[in-house]
Amino acid sequence: MNWKEKFPQFEPQLVELIEKEAVQRTFYAGDIIMRTGQYIKSTILILEGRIKIYRENQEGGEFLIYYLEPGQACAVSMICAIQSHTSELMAVAEEDTEVLMIPVHLMDDMMNQYKTWYQFVIQTYRARFDEILEVVDNIAFRNMDERLEFFLKRYSDKTGKKKLEISHQQIADDLNSSREVISRLLKKMEQRNLLKLHRNMIELF
Hints:
7 helices, 4-stranded antiparallel beta sheet, 205 residues, 3-stranded antiparallel beta sheet, alpha+beta
């Protein structure tokens, strides 16, 4: 695929540098792209597919932070790459995903020499910050039933689908809850005619 279509804002000189230095790679659904404690060697641009960014505790529990879609970049990889820090988050391919990996040693020069890259990085930080604020608001100010409704709407918006192929356990993991609680709340939403439950699929109305 022509990756430039996903990032039309980049200036010609920057495009030339990326084409020369970056590596295109495919991750398959379920592949771990980034682990907690890992040093980041490349900044990741998303071309196709979807990546889930989440926090994992010592017991293996997960908490969803946000999703990355085509045309977006991983802010965590940018920050860790520029500052030579290890990642505090996990990243997994939710579906087969194409990415462009830009080597870390180029970051300083790209920030200094290419205005479109500088603007893209700032916009990426801002977008991810806004999403994290949404997560914090959900935890601090909403009950679990409200958090569940917000999660389903967000998932639907990200995938562009009303029929969500996701299990109750997956939702429970992302919301740091139990499958029993999620199943009970989904059943209540079905009774309110907000959705229809199918096997490993939820249809939103």
